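Quick note —
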Amino acid sequence: MKILIIKTSAIGDIIHAFSALSFIKAHIPNSTVHWLVEKPFSSLLDAHPQIDKVYCIDSKRWKNNFFSKETLQEIKELKSSVQKTEYDFIFDLQGNVKSALCLSIFRSKKKVGFAFKSVPEWPNCFFTNKRYNPPLGKNIREDYLFLIQKALNLPLRPFSLIPIELKISSEEKNHIKFLIEKGQDSQTKICVALGSNWKNKKLPVSTLTSYLKKHPRLKNAFYFLIYGNEKEKIEAQTFAKSFEGKNLIVERLSLPALQNFIADLDLIISMDSMPLHLAETTSTASLSFFGPSLAKKYCPTGEQHQTIQGKCPYGRTFAKRCSILRICKTGACIKDLKEKDIEDHVTLNVN
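Predicted structure written out below.
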């Protein structure tokens, strides 16, 4: 069976869809799975052992230079390449206009997507011929699974992502071993990801350091601090001052290398951001903090994953993300979380 998954962006959302991929491979072991993704995220999918081929689009660059010779040639080559294959099923897990346009150039008699009540952008429905509305209130991973289980006529039951090991070079493996050895004398090795693309998703560094310093089971912990940009690096340096001699600021790794690195640790502490979702592809436990996005919708599944949901002091509710996530002036739902809030709701799954 030949299957195409369309999930082009963003990086965290792509990782959410890995459960669907794992489900397909578990129930149809001999299936061939291809994936369409935005070019900046292709390295993650190229490294995935269950993906047989990756197609790339570069929509932002194409949009800004649509009539350039280079853009038109790239689109022509993509169309020529994809039309060599007729797929048994195409699953559009993106559900917007962009993915619909992409869907139109692929060949399949069964193009599966979200129905009108649940599709992110309704014009997408005109490009699919099998549409389903997942039950309300489920985790995003279950939404994707629902589409696939219904289309393949398989039992509608929970499915947990099976840990995988993304492919990396021998040099990257040696570098990860070198990093891990920095904390070899510590009982518990913890990755801390303080950053997020949106400031209103970030817990104050002082709140987290205060909680960790007082935790009785973390007296001998070693903290590996990861960051995505220079501002986050400064935050990591601030955190490090509270744990002198018990931390290492890790210079940026490739996404597959970061996944392998996280897999070698005991715990990751993260905001609602890419490293948290990458951790779900491993057996590493997590502690996550959610504010203007709904933990029930986006947090990793499994007993080893714990999360805290901040409360909006203005009484706003939402099914996925707060409508004022990007413009809220206070971000109080997460910034007002206190040390005691963490203590009352968390039992760390560490040695």
